[in-house]
Amino acid sequence: MNIMTEKTLEQAVSSQMSAQSNEIIKMRGDNVTVHYGEKQALFDVNLDIRQNQVTALIGPSGCGKSTFLRCLNRMNDTIDSAKVGGKITLDSEDIYDPKIDVVELRARVGMVFQKPNPFPKSIYENVAYGPRIHGLAKNKADMDRVVESSLQKAAIWNEVKDRLNEPGTGLSGGQQQRLCIARAIAVSPEVILMDEPCSALDPIATAKVEELIDELRQNYTIVIVTHSMQQAARVSQRTAMFHLGYLVEEGATDKMFTNPDDKRTQDYITGRFG
Ligand SMILES: Nc1ncnc2c1ncn2[C@@H]1O[C@H](COP(=O)(O)OP(=O)(O)OP(=O)(O)O)[C@@H](O)[C@H]1O
Ligand SMILES: [Mg+2]
Which residues, at least 6 apart from 123, have a Cβ–Cβ distance to it below 8 Å? Predict the structure, then answer.
């Protein structure tokens, strides 16, 4: 006899749901090109970013990883010489359409940088800043809740709950990076972009941030640039390999690290160049 308990039914439904959500294309790059003045940095990149997955962008220095990442929330708009071509969608909507509000786009597609960059303000204010400018909290109690839950989700609440009024810049590097992740989370993004978020962190802080990335995947779609093959293998489900401005190949991380189709990927992951 096969009696399905409530719990297993719940688990079955939720794993089915996540299987489906993993197949949803959250963002899509369609023939993306980027020029910096005369110099072309990206050539016809076609890449899908799947919902609730971590996609790692790998490849040797200068191959265009950060350039592609910055296309996804129009951070390249801030570089005068940069010209982006092709099409990039978020939930099938063209993010370069003139009717798109870039401030709102960057709330939906948040970013965490290589070097932790908390504002020179209190820990509380670092997290409250975004919700305040986006009008996401009705009153102080509401804001307190947003701040607490963002710090909880970034796995740093316990370390800072008794010092919320102290400057964010007084935290350790790893704590600052988790504070920056809390700041990104506070405006309820759908996608979080991370450009080498652990490169300034020690191994223990790195392990904490990696663990956090894995948890965040439940609620967000994540794109991470990393130079660490171990990190890509540990945190991502999909990996995209770039070389000299081209997307060499993209696939399930397991396959990319055990049996890639392209020799350049093989050479890169085995440390033969880059
Ligand atoms: N602001 C800029 N102005 C001019 N050229 C740029 C600019 N940013 C990047 N580039 C050039 O575009 C190419 C891709 O750079 P990008 O920073 O995207 O590479 P990357 O893969 O992130 O490298 P790294 O691993 O070193 O961070 C490089 O040739 C770089 O010199
Ligand atoms: Mg880079």
Answer: 151, 160, 163, 164, 165, 166, 167, 168, 171, 179
